[in-house]
Design a protein that fits this description.
304 residues, alpha+beta, Phosphorylase Kinase, domain 1, Transferase(Phosphotransferase), domain 1, 2 domains, six-stranded antiparallel beta sheet, 11 strands
Length: 304
């Protein structure tokens, strides 16, 4: 089974952050703003996701919440609130078949929320289990479609910053595929929180992101390549028992050639990962569109 920690957002303790106390179990609220809460769908590093209904138009939505007032105070709270609405607005402008649709954003009693389409299917985490891997051609096509979606987002100057299987929904029967949580990782990445600084999910992060350097769309493509590697083999390209060792391996050490783990994969797949997982951003695929085409070339029938 895949290690749940591989999909977990890492939180680094930072001196000066608000002290953490015992975990608080909060009851499911009856409503947030105008939204009527039906049930809890899941929890993440930054809040809870609820199934809810918008009574104004009788539409079911997924309501992602972030308890800003519990995590920030004073000037930092105002900065976090402003950043939240900036990021929500940027994500809300995205309109693509493979990016979750944002309907609304607001705040209620110190809790910020984003209302988005309610999705079918499961997280791609399910298909990183070695016993449940998709056929290689399907996994490669799925990631090619995701690369195209990221190309569109990057063209709108929106970088995701936390691409991983847990942030991608896939419904195999219908083929519905959606990237979720655009902009969410940026909301708390530079502020002090009760528990520290949310850095992202280390196993999927690019070298430059782990090192705190500026990131571009090529960082997202690195994370997408890590996702594909795990979907094809059931394991991550970089693994370690500690955060410092993991960071060192991602930044400096080569990944295991993928055909040593799964020899039946298409010819050329190792060359693709050599480029997609290059340490320097300039050595990777230039855009999501170029990455998508390289993936589809792997799936194309070979001519004699």
């Amino acid at each position: 089974m895949p290690n749940p920690a591989d999909q977990t957002t890492f939180v680094q303790q930072r001196p000066g952050g608000r002290p953490s106390g015992p975990a608080t179990v909060r009851p499911v609220p009856a409503r947030l703003g105008r939204y009527q809460i039906a049930c809890e769908l899941g929890k993440g590093a930054m809040g809870v996701v609820y199934r809810a209904r918008d009574p104004m138009i009788n539409r079911e939505v997924a309501l992602k919440t972030i308890p800003l007032a519990a995590e920030f105070e004073g000037e930092e709270l105002e900065q976090a609130r402003a950043k939240f609405f900036r990021e929500a607005e940027a994500a809300g402008r995205l309109s693509h078949p493979h990016i979750v649709t944002i309907y609304d954003a607001g705040e209620h009693a110190g809790t910020a929320y984003i209302a988005m389409e309610l999705l079918r299917g499961v997280h791609l985490v399910d298909y990183t289990d070695p016993a449940r891997l998709l056929p290689p051609a399907i996994a490669i096509e799925v990631v090619a479609r995701l690369a195209g979606a990221l190309h569109y987002a990057h063209e709108q100057s929106v970088v995701h910053r936390d691409i991983k299987p847990a942030n991608i929904m896939f419904d195999a029967p219908s083929g519905e595929l959606k990237i979720t949580d655009f902009g969410i990782a940026r909301i708390t990445d530079s502020g002090r929180t009760r528990t520290g600084i949310v850095l992202g999910t280390p196993s999927f992060m690019s070298p430059e992101q782990l090192q705190g350097r500026p990131v571009t769309g090529r960082s997202d493509l690195f994370s997408l390549a890590v996702t594909l590697y795990q979907m094809l083999t059931g394991q991550l390209p970089f693994r370690a028992d500690s955060m410092p060792t993991l960071m060192l391996r991602i930044a400096q050490e080569p990944h295991p050639p993928i055909r040593t783990l799964r020899p039946g994969l298409p010819t050329g797949v190792d060359d693709l990962f050599e480029r997609a997982l290059a340490k320097a951003p300039a050595d990777r695929f230039e855009t999501g569109a170029v990455f998508a085409q390289a993936l589809r070339d792997l799936n194309a029938p070979k001519r004699d």
